[in-house]
Write a structure and sequence with these properties.
2 domains, 5-stranded parallel β-sheet, Rossmann fold, 10 helices, disordered N terminus, alpha/beta, 6-stranded parallel β-sheet
Length: 330
């Protein structure tokens, strides 16, 4: 590296370390990248929060949970890449760069996961600002992606947890902070229920513990629909799907009396947006169910607000009574 380039590098690092808070980009054309699941649902929210124009482009993984139907932004799909598998994304970088040549962008933004690093590298090539927003599931610890971006020179990022706010992490309030629980009409807790179980579409992880906890609060008269993703779930009572089309999935949430789910921020957001309090089983790293414990963070955060019930703590039929006699408003 030449001395001049080295000087510019440290000047940029110094600018990133100043105490001024990061500001939202001005309205314009954004290029947004994210993986699927909660990262994607958060990305749509962030694009709207940034007041991105209709000419903006969203790039994400091809999957049932990213097929959202009518959307005010352009969308481009790429092949699914498992968590923390960066090399396949790096190999896609030339094709993503070619895709960008057909559009004019004022900035690049991402909600993760590893694909955010590709977004940052492309921002350097295109010489446009880069914005990284940590998803709300990150309540007490930064993701590996955020830590890598900081090492690469991203001085400031947006976080959606007041606990992570600092001179380097600008707090961006999430709508969850305005959600509240009110009493709903009473149900008889022992009656048969329509139950939807949703364990996401993440690949490479089993969740047999989740299956067992979900079954522990069911009875033989319940009508059950399962969305189990790519895990080996075996024989289950009721209807079983690997994936459910996005539109059908939202209708299934509406139909259900009770939703049991993993701690994915996407399905949790869908439940709360429909007024339902989910019964949640967070995936844990110690059981080989995810790469880390960020699902535990968001479940703890929402449980304290009464916006979720952690089935790890209480897993008997009585928890159904709470979700049937209370609802979420926002």
């Amino acid at each position: 590296m030449q001395y001049y380039d080295l000087l510019i590098y440290y000047v940029n690092r110094w600018e990133g370390m100043k105490g001024n808070q990061l500001e939202l980009p001005p309205p314009g054309n954004g290029f947004f990248l994210s993986s699927s699941g909660g990262h994607f649902s958060e990305l749509i929210y962030i694009a709207k929060r940034f007041k991105a124009s209709s000419n903006s482009l969203i790039l994400t993984f091809n999957g049932s949970d990213t097929k959202v139907g009518a959307l005010e932004f352009n969308i481009h799909y790429i092949k699914y890449v498992k968590p923390r598998k960066f090399l396949p994304l790096l190999r896609m970088m030339p094709s993503i760069h070619r895709l960008m040549k057909n559009h004019e962008f004022n900035y690049i933004a991402s909600t993760g996961a590893a694909i955010a690093i590709i977004g940052y590298l492309l921002s350097k090539i295109k010489r446009v600002p880069f914005y990284y927003v940590e998803i709300i599931a990150r309540q007490t610890t930064l993701s590996l992606t955020a830590k890598i971006l900081k090492l690469l020179g991203v001085g400031k990022i947006f976080v959606q947890s007041s606990l992570l706010q600092s001179s380097h992490n600008t707090y961006l309030e999430h709508p969850f902070n305005k959600y509240r629980v009110i009493k709903s009409k009473a149900f008889h807790v022992n009656g048969a229920r329509r139950i939807l179980v949703a364990f996401g579409t993440i690949q490479g992880f089993n969740f047999n513990r989740g299956l067992d906890l979900a079954k522990s609060i069911m009875n033989e008269n319940d009508s059950i629909e399962w969305q189990v993703g790519f895990m080996n779930a075996g024989n289950l009572p009721g209807i079983k799907h690997e994936q459910i089309d996005r539109t059908d999935f939202l209708e299934a949430i509406t139909r259900a009396d009770v939703v049991i789910c993993h701690g994915g921020i996407g399905v949790i957001t869908d439940c709360l947006s429909s007024g339902k309090i989910p019964l949640v089983i967070p995936r844990r790293k110690s059981f080989g169910e995810h790469v880390d414990d960020h699902q535990v963070e968001i479940v703890n955060f929402l449980s304290e607000k009464g916006l979720a019930i952690n089935l790890e703590i209480k897993h008997d039929r009585s928890v159904i009574n709470y979700v049937l006699t209370n609802k979420v408003i926002h």
